[in-house]
Amino acid sequence: MRTTVGIIGAGPAGLLLARLLHNAGIDSVVLESRDRSYVEHRQRAGILEQGTVDVLRAAGAGERMDREGLRHDGIELRFAGRRHRVDFPALTGGRSVMVYAQTEVCKDLIALQLADGGPLLFEAEALAVEGAETDRPRVRFRRGGPAGAEAEDVLECDYVVGCDGFWGVARAAVPDGRTFERTYPYGWLGVLADVAPSHDELVYARHDRGFALLSMRSPSVSRLYLQVPADTDADSWSDDEIWAELERRFETRDDWTLDRGPITQKSVTPMRSYVHEPMRHGRLFLAGDAAHIVPPTGAKGLNLAVGDVVTLARALAHRTGGGSDELLDAYSATCLRRVWQAERFSYDMTTLLHRAPGATPFDDRLQLARLDRFASSRAAETDLAEAYTGFPIG
């Protein structure tokens, strides 16, 4: 097989890149190791920044998002029984965010790709990236079939883009890269519940017992999280224990209440910060989780991936349209400026709201002072709102 751009991974980064390239008249092939059902149902992020929303609309992938997504104009910070709302449009000149699950973004992009895009091969496992230093890089991959009947093939490309996550083959093919990493001693116990959200916007709660987040997937499905030790087994928590703990951590001084409902899914998400530099080796480019991971507190993971592929698609269109390699050469540095700002914001939000093991009364007072700053300073609020709704792309 031969194409201009070989894309490894059919998550939102790989699928959106394929769509942007298609719209620019550049052919591509997407290789995805999992089947279509798995890709369309794996639970991931649910908050889209203003810039991500704008990109999806411009790419022709915004119709269902605009119909079914939930626009949010703010978040609520909850601490010491207090409630403080951060008004995004008032602080950012009209910017907001959209609650629309990554699974739905993938469904929309898959439908578009299969309808009029280039080949999208499911159950096609990338085995290695070869010749990244040459002008004819290739991806060796294995196509699915009955046990023992899998067939190995080669995708020859002008460029290869690794959108295959931290454990994928693309990152491993970048020699001599530097990595920057922080792991956290806690994780998130996340649940999906068949109950209408108890608040119309996300609630970020700092409590002496640990962090909690009230989110949603739809007007009838709630997504909620509890800070737990990193080695927690989700099944060790009963449904009643989860609801009781959520009620404790969301407690307020007014008459607000948390509505309960059947819990349909629960899992524990680890917390880590990670950056791989550079994000390019020869004609191999890394995007999304293959290059960087953020703790979910700042809702940046999916949005960072979108920024990567928008920057890369623009550079590839410039080059294949007869331009120079200037934008491609600047890809890693351009993306990393945005990545590190998102890493900074996600780290700040995480340490602001989570109670670390062994935290002292001094640490607790500092957290409360930082939160009170948002409630008393428009400048501090503005900084949070600008970061939450999204850093400029490119």
Structure description:
The protein has 394 residues and is α+β, with helices and mostly antiparallel strands. It is built from 13 helices and 20 strands. It has helices at residues 12-23, 36-41, 50-58, 63-68, 88-92, 102-116, 169-172, 239-249, 301-320, 326-329, 331-353, 361-376, 378-389, and strands spanning 5-8, 28-31, 47-48, 70-72, 74-79, 82-87, 97-99, 120-121, 124-130, 138-143, 151-156, 159-162, 178-193, 202-206, 212-218, 221-229, 263-277, 280-281, 284-286, 292-293. An eight-stranded mixed sheet has the order 6-5-14-15-16-13-17-20. It has a six-stranded mixed sheet with strand order 8-2-1-12-19-18. A three-stranded antiparallel sheet has the order 3-7-4. It is globular and about 65 Å long. The protein starts with a strand and ends in a 5-residue tail after the last helix. The model has no long low-confidence stretch (mean pLDDT 95).
* Shape summary: globular
Mean pLDDT: 95
- Give the spatial strand order of the biggest sheet: 6-5-14-15-16-13-17-20
Q: Treating each run of at least 4 consecutive H or I residues as one helix, how many helices?
A: 13
Write the layout of secondary structure elements.
Blueprint: E1 5-8, H1 12-23, E2 28-31, H2 36-41, E3 47-48, H3 50-58, H4 63-68, E4 70-72, E5 74-79, E6 82-87, H5 88-92, E7 97-99, H6 102-116, E8 120-121, E9 124-130, E10 138-143, E11 151-156, E12 159-162, H7 169-172, E13 178-193, E14 202-206, E15 212-218, E16 221-229, H8 239-249, E17 263-277, E18 280-281, E19 284-286, E20 292-293, H9 301-320, H10 326-329, H11 331-353, H12 361-376, H13 378-389
Parallel strand pairs: 1-2, 1-12, 2-8, 5-14, 12-19
Antiparallel strand pairs: 3-7, 4-7, 5-6, 9-10, 10-11, 13-16, 13-17, 14-15, 15-16, 17-20, 18-19
